[in-house]
Amino acid sequence: ALVTIGLTAMYSAGFDNGARFTLQVRNMVLAGVVFFFVAQVPPQRFMALAVPLYTVGVILLILTALFGIDPTHKGARRWLNIGIVIQPSEILKIATPLMLAWWFQRREGRPRTSDIAQAFLLVLVPFLLVAKQPDLGTGLLIFFAGFFVIFFAGLSWKVILPVSVVGIVAIIAIVVAGPTICEPDVDWQVLRTYQKNRVCTLLDPTRDPLGKGFHIIQGMIAIGSGGVTGKGFMKGTQTHLEFIPERTSDFIFAAYSEEFG
Question: Which residues contact 12 (CB under 8 A, 6 or more apart)?
Answer without folding.
Answer: 233, 234, 236, 239, 255, 259
